[in-house]
Write a structure and sequence with these properties.
The chain is an alpha/beta fold and about 260 residues long. The protein contains 9 helices and 8 strands. Strands 5-4-6-3-7 form a 5-stranded mixed sheet, sandwiched between helices. Helix 3 links the parallel strand 4 and strand 5. The protein has 2 domains: about 150 residues, D-Maltodextrin-Binding Protein, domain 2 (3-Layer(aba) Sandwich); about 100 residues, D-Maltodextrin-Binding Protein, domain 2, CATH 3.40.190.10. Helix 2 crosses helix 9 and helix 7 crosses helix 8. About 35% of the residues are buried.
């Protein structure tokens, strides 16, 4: 919205927005390879990537509430409940993506052996639809409301939801961008925060979102009611929880000092 209203442009900033349907794993690669300077990205995914050497820092928490991950099977699947999925194959967008990492969180919460999880890479939501339809994978974890139209249309059936145990989205910047354009980043965050602070109060925002993303308005209203935007840095406590969780699940090999993961502008 800020780009459409030329708010960055009036500050002399040419900010380009790119949707990345492949999700967090792809965004981590784009940051690492210099294809992007900034990303609005899943907390657990970027923490894992930074521990693996990606030269990136978290500069702000973006969404202060958990993400609701729907656990989906094909509508005509024989799977009926969580217990049926214990030894099933998980469709994931990429290794290191949210759909990959959250399958471990879900498995642990259900008392399953996380070392026995099986994965099939599908890249995108369309890939997941095809994989579940062809039975090359059995279930797929993706954000509840994004996938709700697919559930409503009878392609997916949702078994359950699995919320992230932490605030779900952060804004991350490459160290090179931080070193070269820290002042520009401060302006970018200032604009974003002005918009997110007022976002829920924009007249008819529920209808705007409903039309733009082809969502039922009652679903948009439910989503707005459970989603809170942040205008501040993520807490040290949250970073500790995320690293501890990933380490316990053996998804990261080592935990980093806090200043290796976040930076205050």
């Amino acid at each position: 919205m800020a780009i459409d209203e030329n708010v960055f442009e009036t500050r002399g900033i040419n900010l380009e927005w790119t949707d990345v349907p492949e999700g967090t794993g792809k965004m981590c690669a784009m940051l690492e390879e210099g294809q992007a300077d900034l990303a609005i990205i899943l907390t657990e995914g970027i923490v894992k990537s930074i521990t693996e050497g990606n030269p990136v820092k978290i500069v702000q928490e973006y969404i202060a509430t958990p993400l609701q991950w729907g656990i989906h099977v094909a509508a005509d699947s024989e799977f009926q409940n969580m217990a049926d999925l214990q030894n099933a194959t998980v469709a994931i967008s990429r290794f290191g993506s949210g759909s990959h990492l959250m399958s471990y969180v879900n498995a642990q919460s259900n008392g399953w052996d996380v070392s026995s999880l099986n994965f099939h890479v599908v890249n995108t939501l369309d890939g997941a639809i095809e994989a579940l339809k062809s039975q090359t994978a059995d279930y797929f974890m993706w954000e509840h409301f994004t996938t709700k139209p697919i559930v409503d249309s009878g392609i997916f059936r949702r078994i359950a939801d699995c919320p992230t145990p932490w605030p779900c989205f952060v804004i991350a910047a490459t160290e090179s961008f931080l070193n070269e354009d820290r002042e520009i980043l401060q302006h970018i965050l200032e604009v974003i925060n002005l918009y997110t602070a007022e976002f829920k109060h924009i007249p008819s925002i529920d209808r705007t979102i409903s039309n733009k993303y082809e969502q039922r308005i009652e679903d948009v209203r439910e989503w707005l009611g459970m989603t809170e935007w942040s205008q501040s840095q993520i807490s040290i406590g949250t970073i500790i929880v995320v690293q501890d969780y990933l380490f316990k699940l053996k998804l990261i090999r080592n935990k980093l000092d806090i200043d290796k993961l976040i930076t205050n502008l």
